[in-house]
Amino acid sequence: MKATVPARSRSHFHRIFVSVSASALLIGLAGCGSTSARVSDSSVDFGQVAMGTQVRRIAVNVTASGDNDVTVAPKLSGSGDFSIAPDVGCGTKLASHGTCSVVVVFTPTSTDSATATLDLGLSVNDQQISLTGSGVQLTPGQSLVTATDSPLVALYTYAPQGSGDVHIEFGPDTNYGLETSAVTPSAGSPVTIYVAGMRANSTYHMRARTSGGETAMDQTFTTTKITSGTLPPITATSSGTPQSGIEFLNPGFSTASTNFIEAYAVDLEGNVVWAYDYPERTTNALLQSFHVLPDGNILALIGTSSAVAPKSGDPILLREFNLGGVPVRDVTLDQINAQLSGISLVDLHHAVTVLPNGHWLALANAYKSFDGLPGQGDGTKVLGDVIVDVDPSGKVVWTWSEFDTLDVKRAPDGYPDWTHSNAIVYEPDDGNLLVSIRHQNWVVKVDYRNGAGTGKILWRLGYQGDFKLVNGTEPQDWFFGSHQPQFVSSSTAAMFDLTLMDNGYNRQLTPGAACTGTGCYTAIPIYHVDEAAKTATILWRDAIDPSKFSVWGGGTTVLDNGNLEFDLCALGNDSEVDEVTVTGTPQTVWTLKVTGQNLYRANRMPSLYPGVQW
């Protein structure tokens, strides 16, 4: 369908595109004295949804292209079974060149067909989208399996006959072999569970089981191909018995395309079994960290590379989304900045950490100007990092700034990218934080005390820090340009064991003499840290062959079987992930190789579901 809109007089060029995830709605608006629109589809069908449940979907993506912001004020009319989801969406203003999504929830109250109209409330050529859906009444013991907007994910609904928690078992045949987390039914209502962990273009069997002994009839579901972005060539080999589970992969660069999938999971044979892409993506945007939450949703940080200045329209936010890829809660940089005084954050980057109390700790950064810095003129702009503590309501309840706690004149990697922090690690034993600061070659401990701390740096671990290195050679056996510290021991304070990715970037072979060429190498150490004695003893160290020098990115994962996994992110344009034994001569038991992609993070997880081991 094509329509012509009357010409409007405009002093600025405007262009808006609107797309519907379910059925490809496109609307283009152009200024310069005239405006035209092209509509390929204008409706979204939620299909059949079980009574007593609800389904959440991205109904519409709106993209503004041009130099002016666009007002967005979506509203619904018609059936009250449809509602616009809170805590996500477009807000009231869409920045030029930006994209936002309108998420709609359908909660059927009858088996009749429900209809509604979604008015986008655009300040330029407003548009209306038709919504339809119908309820289905499941009788006890019945189930319903439907597709989602994610090609590898099904939505399974089951009406239990009796009491007990419900989980779904699934697999390529009726032996199943995989399962989801269990869900407790509410007041006799059916339960809905996202089933994820399936390969593309494959048929899977699935059925519900309850803790009370019920077993539903077998159903089948066929996945389709991922088309929203590109995936790289992946190979996996095993020479031993690796820790079971799946591998979460988070690339930061791809040679194949700017439209590469930035968050996906593979099984230990290298097959992609889950993937997430986000519609707000721009050429600058990067999904840089994601974690499974206790309720089974996923938390991700989306921003730009920490040293790249964001542009208008770049998405900068913390996002909770379900396994089907639908946003549940967003906290944007604008919302965070609105609560701060004395500082304006530029970006969210590298890492977000989930605390036991549900708070999110995220890395951000800001610029400040300084005079009299070594080798610099007056008014030098310096980029430093900040931690923001966001509670479940979206309120910023605690902040920490490196400008207040570090010597800005100490800059081993120069300016403006003074610190380049890349990880936050929570210490359960005393409620404090470890922060990995790449361009200082330090891991520092911050007085957080579960949000009641002063923010003071309690110590600095690394070259020229507060600890004596034992069982190693100063300075080269310290870590340089490191990423992703992880506790090896159950203890996290006083005396504990710590590992990290020692990238070896600007490794000091002797004081003041950094490595060059083949003298540079990456290492995976384990340190025993004694906070009182201020000693860091090398317990184990795997110095990687210099031919696999990985200058940036990557990390380590401590596995339940006692092995250690590490991610060599930057082998040119490729990556390698290895699981090795922590022995005198480390033995490689599993290797994953990815061609044409740098994996910023790669971490072994038990499954896609909390509390479930595959």
What does this structure look like?
- The protein is mainly beta.
- It contains one helix and 47 strands.
- It has three domains: 132 residues, Sandwich (Immunoglobulin-like), CATH 2.60.40.10; 80 residues, Sandwich (Immunoglobulin-like); 372 residues, TolB, C-terminal domain (Neuraminidase, 6 Propeller).
- β22 and β23 form a beta hairpin.
CATH C-level category of the largest domain: Mainly Beta
Biggest sheet architecture? 5 strands, antiparallel
In DSSP terms (H or I, runs of 4 or more residues), the helix count works out at 1
Strand order of the largest sheet: 20-46-45-44-43
What is the alpha-carbon Rg in Å? 26 Å
Mean pLDDT: 91
Shape by Cα distribution: globular
Strand content: over 45%
Q: Which spans of ≥5 residues are poorly predicted at pLDDT below 50?
A: 1-41
Please name the fourth-level CATH homologous superfamily of the largest domain. TolB, C-terminal domain
**Percentage of helical residues?**
under 10%
User: In the CATH scheme, what's the topology name of the largest domain?
Assistant: Neuraminidase
Q: Based on DSSP secondary structure assignment, what is the total number of beta strands?
A: 47
Structural class: mainly beta
CATH architecture call of the largest domain? 6 Propeller
Number of domains: 3
N-to-C span: 48 Å
Pfam families: Arylsulfotrans
InterPro entries: Arylsulfate_ST, Arylsulfotransferase_bact, Ig-like_fold, Quino_amine_DH_bsu
Organism: Koribacter versatilis (strain Ellin345)
Protein name: Arylsulfotransferase N-terminal domain-containing protein
